[in-house]
Amino acid sequence: MLLCIFLPWLGLMIAGYCLGKLYLKQTHPAYRKKILLISGCVMILLFIAIRLINIYGDMHHWQQQATTFFTVLDFINTTKYPPSLLYMLMTIGPALIFLAYAENISNWLSRKITVFGKVPFFYYILHVFLIHVLGILLFFISRRIWNDPHLNLGYPLWAVYIVWISVITILYFPCKWYSRYKANHPQNKWLSYL
Length: 194
Description:
Oligomer: single chain
Structural class: mainly alpha
Distance between the termini: 26 Å
Largest sheet: none
Shape: globular
Strand content: under 5%
């Protein structure tokens, strides 16, 4: 089961590294934008076409619901763990279109976000560790008992958002440090992978 979850994410990460060639200095920005837009639109169209067929691409087929709104929600409700083909298409397609238009945006927020983009794997490793530590701490802080049959580990959505923002804020500083460290040690090529 672990391979079913790991392999699709690994494939997506490898595709992301390959996409990095579009960001080499010799690549013209107009060409990069064109490739990103075409790729993003093709992925969205593939998602719609495969999802309409309703045979392949996700283990859960969509069904007509009581209202159009809920039918649309069911249509886009795809499997993240393990990630289905349709999940990948419907998330990566819009992300590529966003990349095509967001390249020249430069403001306070974009400079902060860029810190994470310079050290994505480093952020990923730290965030998994930090979220697990926070989960354990929140479990014990809330004074819940492990063997309680009526155990409810859920938190309201506002609390999840607070944890999410806290994790990003906390990890900003080590990511910024590591980004500077990588830039100051170009002789260590292995640092580029973390």
